[in-house]
Amino acid sequence: MEIDRRRFLTLATLAGLSPSVIQAAGRGSPAASDHPLYVAARKADGRYEAVVLDARGHERQVVPMPARGHSFALDPARGRAVVFGRQPGFFAVAFRIDGAQPPVALEAARGRHFFGHGVYLPDGSRMLATENDYEAGRGVLGVYDASRGGEYRRIGEFETGGIGPHEVVLLPDGKTLCVANGGILTHPDYGKLELNLDTMRPSLAYIDAYDGRLIDRVELSPDLHRLSIRHLAQASDGAVWFGCQHMGPASERPPLVGKHRMGHTPELFAGPPEVLRNCRNYIGSVAADPVGQVIATSSPVGNQIVYWDAATGRSLGVTSLADGCGVAPLAPAKFLVNSGMGALVQAGPASSMRSITAPSAGVSWDNHFRRL
Asked: What is the pLDDT of residue 361?
């Protein structure tokens, strides 16, 4: 644990430097651009960074991090984001998209670590992050004051109704959170070692974003109790799509993708047998296109992105990309995808893959790619 605290102090030092530490690499103000902006975490030439870039791959800002990053909480209305350290993450960094102010360093509360995901409330007053209360073995949402002058102070927490909460999304009503409780018990003293594979109970939990009340909670069937629910995206019809990682024997081939609406039974989709087999029991990221009608799920270990019809669950096609994981919406039925090999491409079910930037041996993109 001491190592993580020393890393955090390094981060705090970075955050206290002048804005020139934030390397503005784009041409002109990001706010003035007609192109959508994206954020992603990466390792570049040995440095860990969060990057703001446009759809053409032009970098607008680079934010230093002390260790590997994962995903983000986004507040596009106010031009803000928070990047979280990869599980078990003991740091996060809040920053402005335009680089106008120095970043703010967040340290995980004592006895907690970040799981790599978070969300802002619509009015920007609060930011909530998925966290592990690792001594008690329970999942929580840390609540942070994101109001003007709040400096992201942690002011409380909500229980998530499960173990190992990973991604959290805010539903269109602006007040209901959906949390993917992965069901895997971990403790930072043991790294990512899974401590409860025989008793896993993954779930989707719906939580009131303002008072933490558990509204609804659903689990998969008992025979799928090792199917860890990890990543989420929302379709235009209001359904929450989810991607899973199977923690059972490698010879098993359960469906890895599903969708759910509150009050209904979760639906699972396997797709063609060869596509499911090639996913190798691992979905690394889930995203919906800008109109919410096509869902993309990535499998970096399977080197493929699979597309799904959001209305029917029908598999629409596959893009092959080595170590491709980060997926973000670009246009109807089109996505931007990055990879651990440094690639940034445009792809979709009805179009061939097109490179946006050439792969770089010195760059490794992390698992998630988010559109502002």
From this structure: 80
Give the list of residues 6+ apart from residue 144 with CB closer than 8 angstroms, or none: 106, 126, 127, 128, 129, 150, 152, 153, 154, 155
Specify the pTM: 0.92
SS3 of 5, please? helix
Q: What is the 3-state secondary structure (H, E, C) of 6-30?
A: HHHHHHHHHHCCCHHHCCCCCCCCH
| Domain range enclosing 261 | 220-372
> Residue 2: which region, alpha, beta or left (left: phi > 0; alpha: psi -120 to 50)?
alpha
Contact call for residues 70 and 87 (beta carbons, < 8 A)? yes
The CATH number assigned to the domain holding 357 equals 2.130.10.10
The 3-state DSSP class for residue 201 equals: coil
| Phi, psi of 315, deg, nearest 5 | -75, 130
Q: Pick out the chain residues at pLDDT < 70.
A: 1-34
Please state, as a whole number, how many other Cβ atoms lie within 10 Å of the Cβ of residue 74: 19
Distance CA 191, CA 193 (A): 6
Q: Is 362 part of any domain?
A: yes
Q: Which residue has the tokens 């558990």?
A: 214
Which residue reads 């703010």 in tokens?
A: 104
